[in-house]
Specification:
The structure is a homodimer. By secondary structure, chain A is of the alpha/beta class. Chain A is 42% helix and 12% strand. Chain A contains 13 helices and 7 strands. Chains A and B meet through helix 3, helix 4 and helix 10 of A and helix 3, helix 4 and helix 10 of B.
């Protein structure tokens, strides 16, 4: 008996461990294995007044659950005031290393001369994520993303998650490593989808079972014709597989400010954002969620899986 | 004869010199002594898209002659593109050391850690000109205004004059001394009015006859009732005295962006800027100019009086 107890204990531990590893994210969140969980996530908060007011309106509809904030952008204080007044809101940081418009730009939160590799000749962040990643000194990236997190906290934002504007921090292993290290230190989940593992080897290589990563990200291709907007999302939601999906959307009004800001990128412009706003605050969206038994969740729930 | 010629020469020189000193600014500009010359100057370019588009529209009317640009603001690239495409435009720099709105803010062009005295706890410029002046280290002010001039030039702006957003650089002698030194070095006129000499002793003390300063600045008090806007300006223009006057105005549209930006300062808000836009692009304004023989001029003409 004395010899058998440890053996049984080991066997039970192994079984428990295998079982723990096999539990899906939906189960870890307290839902059945076949649950379809959806985070409806609005990017780019703080970028423009139009983005802030449209997204806040969408949060009030209850249909958009989450958003993330661009700390270097001029309208940060407006969304920070919203965050302070609405501590239950599911707001993360959209860590920003690019300034992609040409008429309307921003630069770093860290002192400019200490993050020079991130800047163009005029002291702004670079226009594209590929150039940003190509020229970035990883130490300066770390300094800048830490400065963004610090400024957000100083303004009373308590972020529930982290992601990366234009995906700059997923462009190579060195950048993703910094992103993950900072996120682990902050005990915050990052936007990573299992579905991306085949696209970038370093993702499965660097992530451990202690990290929280969702199953897939759904986003629209700006090439979808305006009249097909609602049907694109409706079809995708009807076909939604079990697990945790994040639909990444971009909300704003098709107004003068937004047209001015995005005038050089019509495919990612003001009308496109207004269409996202219209679909994701519509009764049609509410109906497709109900008919397909899709449950809305937030990053806050995912964050609770990370031991504090 | 040999002795007389130098005497006559000296007498002539003295007469010429007295005469030169007595020549008014209007005469130095090539106008009669009793000419009424007016610069119609729109402040705050670069601050917001609404400001840029309204001011550009007003320039096109021919009734608004000049403007000045806030280099640290997010919409600088849009107005810099206009400046490059319209090299004849009379654009100066509205040197900026304050960030006065609460929802929408900006910070320095120089590296943050080298101009710390200019910043609040969140890394933005301070809200008021009095606080900005109170805490500013003059060396850091010099570094920042030089950085603003450099960035403007790098973006292809060739400034015709300099002024100071919210008048921060006129708050005390130390700041004005820096402003004047940098302007002289750049060989650019600054916004200074003789009419201000009684308000600040350091102005006549520091200025020399080689500096170009205008006679007076006219601006509206935000307390003027909306229905009295046109009559305030019309009356002031009817009573305009000879000399060089600058009317300092603030143009924008009363739109969502501008209402959002100025929501905490209704007295300096969007409707107020729309009223300025309406009056200064109106036939009524054109008529009052003609009826009162007021001639529009620019800072470029004043700048030509500065030896290069």
């Amino acid at each position: 008996m004395i010899k058998k107890i440890p053996c049984l204990f080991v066997v039970l531990m192994v079984v428990a461990s295998v079982h723990a590893q096999e539990r899906t994210l939906t189960e870890r969140l307290g839902y059945p294995r076949d649950a379809k969980l959806l985070i409806v996530h609005a990017d780019d908060l703080g970028m423009a007044h139009s983005v802030n007011v449209a997204t806040i309106k969408a949060f009030e509809s209850g249909l958009v659950t989450s958003g993330s904030i661009m700390v270097p952008c001029p309208w940060l204080p407006e969304i920070a005031a919203y965050a302070r007044a609405n501590p239950q809101a599911d707001l993360g940081l959209h860590l920003t290393l690019t300034s992609e418009w040409t008429q309307f730009r921003w630069g770093p939160v860290a002192p400019k001369d200490r993050v020079a590799s991130l800047l163009d000749n005029n002291g702004y962040f670079r226009l594209t994520e590929t150039d940003a990643a190509k020229y970035a000194d990883p130490k300066e990236v770390e300094m800048e993303i830490r400065a963004q997190i610090e400024r957000a906290k100083a303004l009373g934002i308590v972020p529930t998650h982290l992601d990366s504007h234009m995906g700059t921090l997923y462009q190579n292993k060195a950048l993703f490593e910094i992103f993950l290290r900072v996120a682990r230190e902050q005990k915050l989940p990052v936007r990573v989808a299992k579905a991306w593992f085949t696209r970038a080897d370093f993702l499965p290589e660097l992530l451990t079972p202690n990290d929280v990563f969702i199953d897939r990200v759904l986003d629209i291709n700006p090439g979808v014709a305006p009249q097909d907007w609602a049907s694109f999302y409706t079809d995708a939601l009807r076909k939604l597989e079990p697990g945790v999906t994040e639909v990444v959307i971009h909300l704003a009004y098709d107004d003068t400010e937004m047209r001015g800001a995005t005038s050089d990128h019509p495919a990612w412009g003001a009308a496109w954002r207004q269409r996202d706003f219209e679909f994701f605050t519509s009764d049609a969206f509410r109906k497709v969620l109900a008919e397909n038994n899709i449950k809305l969740i937030t990053w806050r729930e995912l964050g609770k899986l990370i031991p504090k």
